[in-house]
Amino acid sequence: MQKLTLLLLLLSFLAKDISAQYTIGNASFSYLDPARNNRDVFGEVYFPTDATGNIATGEFPIIVFGHGFGIAISEYSVWWNELVPQGYIMIFPATEGGGIFNAPDHAEFGEDLSFLVNTYLSENSNINSPFFNKINGKSAIMGHSMGGGASFLGTATNPNVTTHVSLAAAETDPSAIAAAGLITIPSLVVAGGADCVVPPIDHQIPMYNALASSYKAYVEINGANHCNFGIASAFSFCVTGQTLAGSCGNTISQSSQHQQMFDITTPWFDYFLKMEVCAIGDFQEYMIDNDPTLHIHDEDGTPPSMMMAGTASNIMGTSADISWAAQSGVTNYTIQYRPVGTMTWMNTIALGTMTSLTGLTPNTDYEFSITANCTNGSSPMSPLGNFTTSNNCVVDLAFALPEHGIINELFEASNSISSTAIILSDANITYHAGVYIDLLPGFEVETAAEFLADIVPCVP
Q: For residue 260, what pLDDT band results from cuts at 50, 70 and 90?
């Protein structure tokens, strides 16, 4: 799918009086999709900026957000005001917004969401784009109401989407419930317990149950209504429809609903889009601690690991060094290791990003994994790493003691010697004992004595 036209107008630099890392920039966009007869996909993008108003230094994940039926993009400002300062790029298509006198095309809107994911991911490699080298390759499709249903449609057919989040999603035509069965990536379904417009029992719960995601979560906020997932005003189309739908029980305040929806979605995005390994524990802990006081929830499956595999180095017969990339918010790390084919893990704790494994068996294949330990639980294990310890052969040693005046008379012993270097089997090495030399039990040498080690081929 090739982008033909980009009209990017930097409209404003919006400084915010908050203690956040970034301020907010805004631009309008218009792209033509050649796969759909040059359909014009237009809207607004909000992005992190620095103190000069330019797009901030760094690489950021993207979130494409689908609006509800008849709901203006401006009614979702609460979302970009919350997430963009934390280092997210948010993209809001304004298509299919005709209102009650111009019925929206759900399928096209789902395609718009998918198209914008691909388009902005490609902007990262476009040297002429203001988003050149600004996107970290991670993406989410998200939406509310009609846009929530369309988010299922757009996610189902796009392998470039990292995670999917829906807010009070409405069933669509074609069916969002049917599309859910095609989604295998991590998915979060958020519903309102006081939503009369699209009641969870008829909309979000069937969508959640249909998801084929390897890891999925459902959260129903007690007393949350349909329109307060944005900032709908008293006379907005959303509130009018909500009023006509009737009462579904007591509702919480708009500010309370906003705080809870951010407490739910922010750690989810931080984990899957920023790969912050401790964030999934924060998400799960919040779910458990506040059920059923603030919400009811369900989880199914296991979150994929965001820990990168470690690296083995300085591999000897009985030892190896393991190192890994540092992670934010981590208390310490657990390193598990075992010979390949065995069941029992051995483990050690490290405060930094390197540890030395000792007491290993020579000439043995090992596998290892790393887990980050956080304030709220531990991360999933990293992918397995592997290494093979070297041979630790017995060698024939010949040595002379010059201080005894016996230089050419050799005494032989069959013992092992420890070394910090790899010695080839046909090498002739002369060792000089300084303060000490590390020899295994059964061999002795005096301080300052010289000895010759002739390394011969051996079979472990």
A: very high
Residues 318 and 441 reside in one and the same domain: no
Q: What is the DSSP letter of 149?
A: H
pLDDT of residue 251: 87
Nearest alpha-carbon partner for 80 in 41, 121, 129, 22: 22
What is the model's pLDDT at position 450?
53
For residues 16 and 137, state if they share a domain. Answer: yes
The reported pLDDT for the residue numbered 7 is: 35
- Rounded to whole angstroms, the maximal C-alpha distance in the chain is 109
Q: What is the CA radius of gyration of the chain?
A: 31
Are residue 318 and residue 216 in the same domain, yes or no?
no
CATH number at residue 98: 3.40.50.1820
Q: What single-letter DSSP state applies at residue 274?
A: T
User: Domain range holding 175?
Assistant: 9-301
CA atoms of 187 and 164, how far apart (whole Å) = 5
Query: Is the pLDDT reported for residue 195 higher than 50?
Result: yes
DSSP, res 448: T
Mean predicted confidence (pLDDT) in 442-447:
52
Q: Which of 343, 368, 388 lies at the terminal end of a domain, its last residue?
A: 388
Are 224 and 195 within 8 A, CB to CB?
yes
**Is 93 within a domain?**
yes
**% of the chain with per-residue pLDDT over 70:** 79
Rounded distance, CA 94 to CA 44, Å?
A: 7
Model confidence band, residue 6 (pLDDT cutoffs 50, 70, 90): very low
Domain membership flag for residue 39: yes
What is the number of structural domains in the chain? Answer: 3
Can you give the three-state secondary structure of 10-45, one letter per residue? Answer: EEEEECCCCCCCCEEEEEEEEEEEHHHCCEEEEEEE
Residue 460 forms part of a structural domain? no
- Tally the C-alpha atoms within 13 A of residue 323's C-alpha that lie toward its C-beta: 5
The winner for highest mean pLDDT among 10-19, 208-217, 409-418 is: 208-217
**What whole-number distance in Å separates Cα of residue 298 and Cα of residue 433?**
66
Task: List the structure tokens of 216.
Answer: 């999925």
pLDDT confidence bin for 237, thresholds 50/70/90: confident
DSSP 426: T
Cα angle, residue 109 at apex, residues 105 and 113 outer, rounded to 5°: 175
